[in-house]
Amino acid sequence: ENNLLYDAFNTDVLRGSAMLGNPNMEAQRTNAYEINYNNQLSDIFALNISAYYKDIYNQVGMVYIHALPTPYQEYSVSEYGNSKGIEFELRKNPLPTDHLGITFNYTLSSVIGTSSSADSYYQPALEPYTKVPAYPLTEYPLSNDRTHRLNLIVDFSWGSNQGPSIGGIYPLENAFINLSGFFQSGAPYTKLSLSQNPKAEINSERGPSYWRADLRFQKAFMLRDYFGEGAGKTSIEFFVDINNIFNRTAMSGFYTTTGDPD
Predict the structure, then answer these.
(1) Is the pLDDT of residue 214 over 80?
(2) Helix or strand or coil: residue 226?
(3) What is the distance between the alpha carbons of residues 234 and 73, in angstroms, rounded to a whole number?
(4) pLDDT exceeding 70 applies to what percent of the chain?
(5) If DSSP codes are grouped into helix, strand and coil, which group holds residue 5?
(6) Is this prediction's pTM over 0.90?
């Protein structure tokens, strides 16, 4: 972005803790690798496995310039990021006899780096003895690092004259039921003291995990059943969505001093 290059670069008077652009920054460089394995295990089961690895060099961060009389901070390509993971997906196609389709997906991943954003270290904490800005010396889990993510989709579908019968009537014919849910582990955060100073390594703590499930019921009414074959394949469909069917309460945040959710 242009502001990272030129903001306040030609300023005449510096204010305290000013953020200056840096037009001499090098371009970012990303090395990315991915490998996939797909196998049609049978007529109804399929397996996909994907693994990826990515290095991101020259990410934008900030450096503290201890100039006199007014110190300032300048954007710099001084940060590094890395992401890697493996994903498993197993799919089952529905059969005319069971009307059941399943998609199971699991991802194990890691996202680490030396800065979550370009201005993560604006006005950084000072070393207690030297009183100089304290920057991390190694990578740490970034704010979007979630180790585990699981997705599950279960589908039930019936065609014309299919499903349970009551007195020759098929209430679930041309109906579709979708149940989808996910689970994800908590995001990292830095534990703080009551005075809001870090009391542990950056992002060394984990917030609570979360899961939820949603449901959709959809049914089509074929117009030819009411108006004859002249209506062709025209249908009217109705659906109902139920979000968060187990009434799971998601946190809006959590207290970084205790780790308790809000």
Answers:
(1) yes
(2) helix
(3) 65
(4) 92
(5) helix
(6) no
Continuous H helices in the chain: 2-6, 224-227
Query: Rounded to an integer, what distance in angstroms lies between the CA atom of residue 58 and that of residue 83?
Result: 15
Cα 231 from Cα 210, distance rounded (Å) = 47
| Residue 27 one-letter amino acid | A
The Cα 20–Cα 70 span in angstroms is 13
pLDDT digits (tens, 9 = 90+) for 130-141: 767 777 778 899
Residue type, 49: I
Q: Kindly give, in sequence order, each residue whose CB lies less than 8 Å from that of residue 91, ignoring residues fewer than 6 positions away.
A: 45, 46, 47, 48, 101, 102, 103, 104
Among candidate residues 65, 66, 62, the one with its CA nearest the CA of residue 77: 62
Position of tokens 């201890």?
Answer: 66
Q: What pLDDT sits at residue 2?
A: 56
